[in-house]
Amino acid sequence: MRVLFLCHNHPSLQAGGTEAFARSLFRELRDRHGVEGMFLAAVTAAHRERRPGTLLQAIGDAADEALLWLGHFDRFNLSQPDSYGLASLAPMIAALKPDVVHVHHLLQLGVEMVDLVRRAAPRARLVFTAHDFFPICAQEGQLLTTDRRLCPGPSLDRCLACLPGRSGADLVMRDLQLRQVLAGFDRILTPGEFARGRYIAAGLPPAQLQVMRNGIAAVPAAPPRPAPDGRRDRFGVFGNLNRFKGTLGLLDASRRLSAQGVAHGVALHGGLAYQSEDFLGEFRAALDVAPDARHHGPYAAADLPARMAAVDWVVVPSIWWENAPLVIQEAFLHGRPVLCGDAGGMAEMVRDGVDGLHAPIGDPAGLAAAMRRAAATPGLWDALAGNIRPPVTIAAAAVAHLALYRDLLARLPARRVA
């Protein structure tokens, strides 16, 4: 079987959960199941300069992984107007003759890439994983209003309120185009039931949508942090730090606990790349007034177990719904209960009072209350940690994806070439 993976970046350049999972899945299918193909990751000038003569660049020593340099992306329409550049890829895709093309995001690649793939590989089955809500939400795919309220789903009035600079016609045309593009996929995968429900509510056919859990590499778990006094009051946040991940709200929660005399520590593990000067200023100011919080900077995947060993709880303070955060899987792999928002993909993965605690999304006072309960309740950590279910492994995810690919190839009729 030959499979072409398309993603909006490469984990070696941008360590996001989608990129990490997509590349891990590709390698697992290749190394354990003999699947051939290519992992093609889109990049821009923010990650690599363009090289003359080709859109393709090597990445590391892997012969089956490459970077695709694409600029000029239109984020509102998820459109890549560099049609000449995209067309230059057609011979490579045709020569690969993929049986399956699995698109892990439309960012940078654009809706035009889907049409190119369909023409260059007309017999291939097309699979799309909706790792977030970009296709149904023009507000950065987060279903979060500009005044930071959770949005139940797209509607013309709600979208116009968030995007006053856009006309109703703009929004209608975006919706029609993306519906047409998504209709061309043989299967649309979501990492959880919540996301599937959001896409169904937005009007996509339920039969086209399938829950397929993301997986994580199985590594030895970090040991519990020594706590001779029995207190479990060390909190950690892992991953990119930004406004929508709730970084500022967590710092405010820590500040409140310090002011109340609650002994605790907050370790922020993650980088601040590509953040605005406004956010960086707010972050520095919030950190300055949270005396029990420390920023430890970015980290490599190999560093995670050692950093995880120094915390008791993992906090996921995101202010949007989220979908299937990799950090929750990482926390559970290492036996750490999770504090997270009380709705969306986070609440689906973390069971309140069972293997973690919920707090109101976007509410620093509510988050502080949950952290205080976690730190001050004897035996709570042991009870929650003992209920943690092992996350789906990348090996299991690969088996499930391979079964889907085979099913699509066996059951669906051959495509007609336009």
UniProtKB/TrEMBL annotation:
| InterPro entries referenced in this protein's UniProt entry, alphabetically | Glyco_trans_4-like_N
Give the residue range of the signal peptide.
Answer: none
Name of this protein: Glycosyltransferase subfamily 4-like N-terminal domain-containing protein
Q: What positions does the domain Glycosyltransferase subfamily 4-like N-terminal occupy? A: 16-216
UniProt entry keywords in alphabetical sequence: Glycosyltransferase, Transferase
Q: Does the keyword Transferase apply?
A: yes
* CDD domains per UniProt: GT4_ExpE7-like (cd03823)
- Could you tell me which Pfam families the record lists for this protein? Glyco_trans_1_4, Glyco_transf_4
